[in-house]
Amino acid sequence: MNLNDCYNFEDFRKLAKKNLPAPIFHYIDGGADDETTLKRNTESFLKCDLVPNILASVGEPDLSTEVFGQKIDLPIFLSPTAMQRLYHHDGDKASARAAEKFGTFYSMSTMATSSIEEIANISGGPKLFQLYIHKDQGLTDNLIDRCKSSGFKAMCLTVDTVVAGNRERDHRWGFTTPPKLTLKSLMSFAMHPKWAFNYLTHEQFQLANVSHWTKKGSSIAKGVMEYINEQYDPAMSWKDAEYVVKKWGGPFALKGVMSVEDAKRAVDIGASAIMLSNHGGRQLDGSRSPFDQLPAIADAVGGKIEIILDGGIRRGTHVLKALSLGATACSFGKGFLFALGAGGQKGVEQILTRMRDEIRRDMILLGCKSIKELNKTKIAYR
């Protein structure tokens, strides 16, 4: 199996599983506890159907939309995801270049393995930075200031990770950053010599945005859950969110909003967007899916704030359903990470090509000339 054989999410997942050592594959693939929310994120799209209009003379549909003050060529962008260097030796650089090529947002995690400055130097495309509130206020401020200096267009604050979710696959496989060899993981690393060679012969693993401040997670092998619990502020509050909105001063989203009450409060503190997200089912298992919550939140704050649906996106039809129910745009993480693991920058470009082609084709079949024509009339519930 190679990249040319990858037509959908599951194909990229299978190729990534073949290429990556088990601890790393399962870090991408897994969720919290029993992984019920992880499964529900995608299953929730099945509860409604698209209703097409015929003879609409669509021609070539316009797939562009505007989010964070930027026009993007696709209504989907790359979610912020940590430690991309583990999935392919080009890591964030591959993802940023691919996103720029497709005219959409690349999003950088605080826990990226390339620095803010490195990515700013290699990509002129729109860039979003994902911030965590650290216990050390100086580190938080440092990250914001560097994003301003480096021309990042937008920022999001992840609010659903004040403590780490119980990701049992990480315990089972002994996943750490950087990777360390255990009796159980040794066999898997040995069975993936190409990955091991690339990992060992390219630049050293580090959490590049925080390594100048703390060596934990860069020079000391730490579990991701340990790092989160040690470094992130569990007392984070709305005051912290307000502080970041003001200090950043540009397009800003709260990532991890799931309730109508919180969506309304995000409007009140001056956020320009919210990202409906449960962290890919990796935090509170048994919680609702973003798509389940979308209609109520769109009814409450639609038109007052941009709404980005993040979670469970596997198909172009998922994007169109979300946009029809009030989302401004969508973002996805697992899909492009599997593509990155499957083939680096070419892999990310391949999955973006598949998603673009699906969205284009499905809009024609749906009878919509532009994203603006997607609305509730295109949806029927079962």
Describe it for me?
This protein has 382 residues and is of the alpha/beta class. The protein has a single domain (3-381), classed as Aldolase class I (TIM Barrel, Alpha-Beta Barrel). 43% of the residues lie in helices and 13% in strands. The protein is built from 15 helices and twelve strands. It has helices spanning 9-19, 22-29, 36-43, 91-101, 116-122, 137-149, 168-173, 183-190, 193-201, 224-231, 238-248, 260-268, 290-301, 316-324, 334-366, and strands at residues 48-50, 65-67, 70-72, 76-78, 106-109, 127-131, 154-158, 252-257, 273-276, 306-310, 329-332, 379-381. It has an eight-stranded parallel beta sheet with strand order 4-11-10-9-8-7-6-5. Helix 5 (116-122) links the parallel strand 5 (106-109) and strand 6 (127-131). The longest helix has 33 residues, at 334-366. The protein is globular.
Topology diagram in text:
Layout lengths: L8 H11 L2 H8 L6 H8 L4 E3 L14 E3 L2 E3 L3 E3 L12 H11 L4 E4 L6 H7 L4 E5 L5 H13 L4 E5 L9 H6 L9 H8 L2 H9 L22 H8 L6 H11 L3 E6 L2 H9 L4 E4 L13 H12 L4 E5 L5 H9 L4 E4 L1 H33 L12 E3 L1
Parallel strand pairs: 4-11, 5-6, 6-7, 7-8, 8-9, 9-10, 10-11
Antiparallel strand pairs: 1-12, 2-3
Helix pairs in contact: 1-15, 4-15, 12-13, 14-15
The low-confidence parts are none
Radius of gyration: 20 Å
Number of strands: 12
| Shape category | globular
Strand order of the main beta sheet, please? 4-11-10-9-8-7-6-5
- Biggest sheet character: 8 strands, parallel
Q: What separation lies between the terminal Cα atoms?
A: 37 Å
Q: Helical stretch count?
A: 15
> Averaged pLDDT, please?
91
